[in-house]
Design a protein that fits this description.
binds zinc ion, 187 residues, alpha+beta, binds copper (II) ion, 8 strands, 8-stranded antiparallel β-sheet
Length: 187
């Protein structure tokens, strides 16, 4: 009888160990089922608001893609033709004329140019071209912008400016693009 009791306890202990082991093995499987969703694509947006006396507005979107940042803009209220389009140093649109946004974003301290120039500011996006109805669409894949915080070319928190005149892509330091019609902060 004593031996039977001893065997029973031994069996009970074996069962408890087996159960505990089973529970531990089950834990990682449960974590796999609750795996976090794929990371959201890195994206930033600037809502463009008109400066004083102007009616230019719209949205500029920056999206991380393979090979660079895809920039797209949809803008209304322009005069037909080309309008300088830049990222400026400061994400500050508080001045009525947009001058609070500062100069072109230029972390490397180089000359002004356009997206196709060998030498250019990080903020040089070229021109928006508006049709007769005053709207402009812009799409470009630019490998010199960054949405990675800590990168010198990181653009979040900077300003976007749309100008009255065409950026000639050569005049220093601004491309002679004239007054600022709309300003937005990249968020
Ligand atoms: Cu500008
Ligand atoms: Zn520039």
């Amino acid at each position: 009888m004593k031996k039977f009791a001893y065997l029973s306890i031994l069996l009970l202990i074996s069962l408890l160990i087996a159960c505990a082991g089973g529970a531990e093995e089950a834990a990682p499987a449960a974590e796999e089922v609750a795996a976090p969703p794929a990371p959201e694509p890195v994206k930033a947006v600037a809502q463009m608001a008109p400066t004083e006396g102007n009616s230019v507005e719209g949205t500029v979107t920056f999206e991380q893609m393979e090979g660079g940042i895809h920039v797209s803009a949809s803008i209304t209220g322009l005069t037909p033709g080309s309008h300088g389009f830049h990222i400026h140093e400061n994400g500050d649109c508080s001045a009525p004329d947009g001058t609070s946004a500062g100069g072109h974003f230029n972390p490397a301290g180089v000359d002004h140019g356009g997206p196709g120039s060998e030498v250019k500011h990080v903020g040089d996006l070229g021109n928006l071209v508006a049709g007769d109805d005053g709207t402009a669409e812009y799409h470009a894949m630019l490998d010199y912008l960054s949405l990675n915080e800590g990168d010198p070319n990181y653009i979040v928190g900077r300003g976007v400016i749309i100008h009255a005149s065409e950026d000639d892509l050569t005049s220093q330091p601004t491309g002679a693009a004239g007054a600022r019609l709309a300003c937005g902060v990249i968020e």
